[in-house]
Design a protein that fits this description.
It is built from 13 helices and 15 strands. It is of the alpha/beta class. Strands 7-8-9-10-11-12 form a 6-stranded mixed β-sheet, with helices on both faces. A 4-stranded mixed β-sheet has the order 2-1-5-6, covered by helices on one side. The chain has a 3-stranded mixed β-sheet with strand order 13-14-15. Helix 1 packs across helix 10 and helix 10 packs antiparallel against helix 11. The longest helix is centred in the C-terminal third of the chain and has 16 residues. The chain starts with a strand and ends with a strand. About 45% of the residues are buried.
Amino acid sequence: MVTFVPTRPGRLADVPAFTRTIGGAESNVACALAAAGHRVRWVSRVGADGFGDHLVEAIGSYGVDVRAVRRDPERPTGIYFRTAEDRAADGHEVLYYRAGSAASAMSPRTVPRRDLWAGRILHLSGITAALSEDCLALMRELTARPPLAPRPSPGRAAALPPADPGRPLISFDVNHRPGLWRDAAGPRVLLDLARGADIVFVGADEAEAAWGVRGARAISDALPEPELLVIKLGKGGAVVIDRSPRAIEGIEDGDGVATLVRPPAVDVVAPVGAGDAFAAGFLSATLRELPVRDRIRHGHLMAAAALTVPGDLTQPPARAHADRLVALDDTAWGRLRLGPGWTGDDQEVRTR
């Protein structure tokens, strides 16, 4: 959808002007992954209107394949307005205008399976499930586990299922947005969808708000199925529960291996876009078959790239530059401090 961002902080009632940009969790991840050098396809529906033109052109400019985006002549492109503050801040406001939008008409009937089953990873968001009953039906179909089919392991490329006819790895970002749900069933729906995915991203704060569970152990107990459970702890970093067969070999309880990585210090320019950027960095490293610790570090670096620019999206660090930082020992990693411009190859990264 199209996002309107205030030109200055304050209540929506007081902001005199807005800047148009692109928004949407899945499209943000798609743009970041494409900018990081991966082949990415964005599958969606937008209106046959000027805002739809803008979205397709803007997202395509990042190198994303937009040929699977359908144009709806009867429904408009969705838009939303938000304040400049961090989503977790008390003063944060957001207004969605998505009821009856083109995207809300996505369903198992309108989204061809061939468009979704073509890659190694299919990334989904809980936001889509909240848009309509048709969208929820699509999400349920995509996260349904095949009967008696073993779960694919994200650890090695050879273990990934074939693109056709088997499903790819399903990546699911919970993205609990209470304002989008029409009833109180949203949290339960999100839990069910997450349990059908292979990789799940969830914030510790949203898990507590949605499901009443607190702490990594309780979240892990609530989501026993995903092979990679990524729990975001805000400034505390992220912990990944790895339940892939290789990780749990020899572990009697089978609960998985937990890896915690704290983020580097960041001089924040705008507190937006970090969640989607983190998911993109983690998925990029997953596609490259990197160790779990390195996947988390790449997630932190991509999030830092988003936090050190004014908007949601930015050019990520070059792969070689990011790899050098990810390879630092724990002491050097803990001393990193990233500020505006740090993603450039010619920029010296500061330490604390």
